[in-house]
Amino acid sequence: MNSKSADLGEERTGRFLDSFCRLEKYLREYTQSDKGVGVNVLVERASKSNSAVRAKKDDLKGLADLRNAIVYERRDGEPIAIPNEIAVSLIESVEAYITKPPKVIPTFKCDVFVCSPEDPIAIAVEAMYKYKYSQILIVQNVSFMKLLTASTKANC
């Protein structure tokens, strides 16, 4: 392996291990587990109450296997595995997804069409048809009153 390839491998290995360590620390704190608890056990424990960990459970276990190959498996003093850019991107995206999950706002922030109880039903029906809304909030004095749905409308 030439010097440039070795440097690239070391850089990717460093990024992978740094991200893995941060993720392992997060899981250990989240599960309130001792240092002796393995990563797969941390993942199992955290996945019971953390939907982000549950969603990435298989990736986490595979990444733990790769980490073990990088850190513990050696041939002639050299690691038997060097993570490629795909593996590094995966661990970094999994880390971000679990430790900084997307928030409801801004992910689902949008304008909401509302009607008041005094508005003619035609306004709500027209908006539902025109904008393909399935639900409209009925609000009075900034207080939620009722949810008008397509099935509510059909039952009138």
Please describe the structure with a list of short key phrases separated by commas or semicolons.
3-stranded mixed β-sheet; CBS domain Like; elongated; 60% helix; alpha+beta; 12% strand; 156 residues
Give a topology summary:
Layout: H1 3-31, H2 39-47, H3 51-55, H4 57-71, E1 74-75, E2 78-79, H5 85-99, H6 104-107, E3 114-115, H7 121-131, E4 135-140, E5 143-149, H8 150-154
Parallel strand pairs: 3-4
Antiparallel strand pairs: 1-2, 4-5
Helix pairs in contact: 1-2, 1-4, 1-5, 2-4
Structural class assignment: alpha+beta
Number of strand elements: 5
User: What is the H/E order?
Assistant: HHHHEEHHEHEEH
User: How do the strands of the widest beta sheet line up side by side?
Assistant: 3-4-5
Straight-line distance between termini: 75 Å
Major sheet attributes? 3 strands, mixed
Oligomeric description of these chains? single chain
User: Helicity, in percent?
Assistant: 55-70%
Quote the beta fraction.
5-15%
Query: Mean of residue pLDDT?
Result: 92
Rg, alpha carbons: 25 Å
- What's the structural domain tally? 2
What overall form do the CA principal axes indicate?
A: elongated
Extract low-pLDDT stretches: none
Separate helix tally: 8
